[in-house]
Amino acid sequence: MSLPPGFLDELRNRTTLSRIVGRKVTWDNRKSNQAKGDLWAPCPFHQEKTASFHVDDRKGYYYCFGCHAKGDAVSFLREAENMGFMEAIEVLAREAGMQMPARDPEAAQKADRRSQLAEVMEAAVQHYRMQLRTGAGAPARDYLAKRKLSEADRDRFEIGFAPEGWQGLWDHLKAKGIADDLILAAGLAKPSTKGKAPYDTFRNRIMFPIRDARGRCIAFGGRAMDPNDNAKYLNSPETELFDKGRSLYNHGPAREAAGKGETLIVAEGYMDVIALVTAGFHAAVAPLGTAITEDQLRLIWRIHPEPLVMLDGDTAGIRAAMRLIDLALPLLEAGYGLRFVILPEGMDPDDMIRARGAQAMRDLLETAQPMVNLLWRRETEGKTFDSPERKAGLDKTLRETLRKIADPSIRAHYGEEIKQLRWELFGSNRKPQPQRGSGMAPRGRSQAPLAPLPVTRTSLLATPGGEAVEDHLREAMILAICVTHPACLARFESQLETVDMLDPGHDRLRNALLLASHDPEVAADPDAFRNRIAASAGADLEKLLALAHVRIAPPVRNFEDTDLATMCLAEELAKLEARRGMTAEIEEAMEDLEGLADEGLTWRLSQAAAARHRAERSRLDDDSDMGEDRAALSAQLQSLIDRAVWEKKRH
């Protein structure tokens, strides 16, 4: 539905952000000034012990200096409570005492229908729980007792039982006056094809309610008591309430536990989750009987940025891990990933905990592997690379896999990890080979690598530390301008947040600058601003201002020329981004040409690198010029690559 003009502004004016956020965090009273609406707490979106999450009630805005989460009351409810936009608006309006605008009649009717279905599902939950306590439920209780589930555990997860019989639940719900169409629409019964009354979907099964993030029962999972049943586990059919590919078992409680600092564990099924939770691992979820979907993966990342995916150590478990890797690669973002925990073969989490205890599970969680390790394992395990062709085949497969990663920074880091793993595989067992050129002895396993050719030695690509030094100097200039001209921080905040500071001292100083800039009184007074930075990052600030090229820089010496500072800061940020982007292009080109390079090609690539540095050192008039320089360089580099590959193939 659409909202009338001004409604959101009025809602934000009536909403106190700290009251909304305060339900999820514990304020740090040492840093907070509640009288001014300036509050600090550990971030509810990532694990931390320090208070880096800032709420400004006057602006109605929050920001985390650790994970960079930011927004207003609406976005906080959407992220912290996994609410939809209109759902968050309704919650805030209700608390602010504002009347929601009239809904579209069709949308209101649909919402009422969903509420009715949720009530039917709750009636079914209570019926199944009652049946578990009857004589007919004795075998189910015995089974649960063998799985070490106490009565309190059964109540906690609202486990029930659907007895044998075709219309037990149907008759019960009809007796409560519930209409036929609602029972059928909820997926609790199916129409008969023989002209008889509808029959129950679940029969002779242990029942597990599936609830959404808001706690509403939207479906059931049923475990068959008969070992000969065709389906060991059966889920509700998809309904107006239930979309299997967009739901997670134990979603709400796991999200709450993860918000308190627990690592999210993604297990395979209901009993795995229950075993983990009862053993003290409260942040555990499971997909519903199928491989994890893209929607479920996004839900998982909203709960925790780096969940642990727990899989059986058998072939099926490893295969599931590989499917998940292929799904996740294009979706990866900075700070969001997956780690994998491989269980001992033949054991699930329940077996592991019962046989070895909760501590053994904690120890196993410590062995979680990053996704790149399993990716490498998939492409190399059980394979022999005893020929150039096989090695080239591996390289090709890995390049094609890495191209699936959309984020260039993550793709570059994956490339570095793969290079290291490749060296470990091929570098330590290479057979001695004669070197090209006269008078050269064969190179053995421990022989030092060849010295660079004279033409290569002159290239900046081969200059030790050259690019790192340039990055360090450019980072220093960016920070020095921000220290001298606090007004620039507001304009360039997003760029400063995302730029990778290679020097740890620069990273600490950058965070201190952003932190101080969010205090309006300090940011408005350059002396107070400098004192705040000195108090929080004194050693790093002194080291920065001691650099000769910083002291003599015009924007640093001219305190009052804000226009000059703005222009110089934009230029330095753009050049740093362009240089790193072009370095990544050249590194990718070198990877593509691995095994093809000769001296002539090395020379041509050195020319591309020189062109890159000439482009960097040219005066940057505006952003469009940098885009043109970079596009021209990319075209030049691609031309060199294509020509070199063609020449190699021709010969």
From TrEMBL:
Its EC number is 2.7.7.101. Binds 1 zinc ion per monomer. It catalyses: ssDNA + n NTP = ssDNA/pppN(pN)n-1 hybrid + (n-1) diphosphate. A zinc finger (CHC2-type) spans 43-67. SUPFAM superfamilies: DNA primase core (SSF56731), Ribosomal protein L4 (SSF52166), Zinc beta-ribbon (SSF57783). SMART domains: TOPRIM, ZnF_CHCC. Residues 427-452 are annotated as: Disordered. Its cofactor is Zn(2+). Residues 262-346 form the Toprim domain. Belongs to the DnaG primase family. Contains an N-terminal zinc-binding domain, a central core domain that contains the primase activity, and a C-terminal DnaB-binding domain. Monomer. Interacts with DnaB. This is DNA primase. It comes from Albidovulum sediminicola.
